[in-house]
Amino acid sequence: MDHKLMEDNLRKIEAVVSSKIVVGEDNQIDEVHIVSNGHRGAKQIARDIQSVLLATYDVDIDHKKISIAQIPDEMVQRNSCRVKLNGVSQDTFGTKATVRVNLSKKEDEYVHSRTGVNTVRNVDRMLVESTLAAVQDACGFEDVFIFEDVRQIQISGGTVVIVCVTGIWNDTEQRLSGSCVVKNDYHGAVVKATLDAVNRFLTK
Questions:
Q1: Are residues 20 and 70 in the same domain?
Q2: Torsion-angle region of residue 158: left (phi > 0), alpha (psi -120 to 50) or beta?
Q3: Residue 77: what pLDDT?
Q4: What pLDDT is attached to residue 109?
Q5: CATH number of the domain enclosing 48
Q6: Do 71 and 85 sit in the same domain of this protein?
Q7: DSSP H or E stretch at residue 36
Q8: Domain boundary at 23, 44, 75, which?
Q9: Structural domain of residue 162, as residue ranges?
Q10: 65, CA 20 to 30 Å: which among 59, 75, 174, 179?
């Protein structure tokens, strides 16, 4: 039984920020620990947890085994979702290009790619969207981040790439931006600038 996958799915429940499952020697669930942002009642969340475990994994857990800590949203730390870059690649086939972004969270890797017309602007967009898709996969999110724009600026004799995305959290839109100095790898800089924006959102 994949308890890590269970934890990922529990984090998708509305108002749940983080989750931890404690198993006994028989590999059965002894405790479920939840951190909530306080936007929903503990009893509602507990019922949702029971429903998800029963409907998805055929696990019937007593509500007494579920512990829910409610912390105001502005105080909750979401640094468990912080990811890092492993690699970026691009393959070109005539007028088409495929970009691939490889991220990791702890020991797990998340690879996403996009294929489209091989223009500078479109490759930038595909790099950002591939990065956002990998981040959402790593953090168990769905349709949280949206690509907005990529720009380059010249400063102090060098080039800085700036990425702007929108994050949607608790029905509220937040404009996010990140930057990275361009050295030898422009594509890597675009991905790092995207991560700079997203990691601030996930860990603030």
A1: yes
A2: beta
A3: 47
A4: 92
A5: 3.30.300.30
A6: no
A7: strand 29-36
A8: 75
A9: 79-203
A10: 75
Tokens 């857990």, residue located? 61
| Mean model confidence pLDDT for the chain | 87
Residues 41 and 172: their CA atoms lie apart, in Å, by: 20
**pLDDT tens per residue across span 155-180:** 888 899 999 999 887 667 888 899 99
Q: Which of 75, 100, 119 is the last residue of a domain?
A: 75
CA distance 53 to 21: 12
Q: Is pLDDT above 70 for 184?
A: yes
Domain count, the chain: 2
133 and 97, same structural domain?
Answer: yes
Q: Is residue 143 a contact partner of residue 132, using CB atoms and an 8 Å limit?
A: no
3-state secondary structure at position 177: strand
pLDDT tens digits along 58-107: 999 999 999 998 876 554 444 457 788 999 999 999 999 999 999 998 88
Q: Is the dihedral of CA 77, 202, 10, 25 positive or negative?
A: negative
Phi and psi at 81, nearest 5°, equal -95, 5
Q: Is residue 35 a contact partner of residue 69, using CB atoms and an 8 Å limit?
A: yes
User: Residue 202 carries which DSSP code?
Assistant: H
> Do 175 and 104 belong to one domain?
yes
pTM across the whole model: 0.61
CATH of the domain at 101: 3.30.160.270
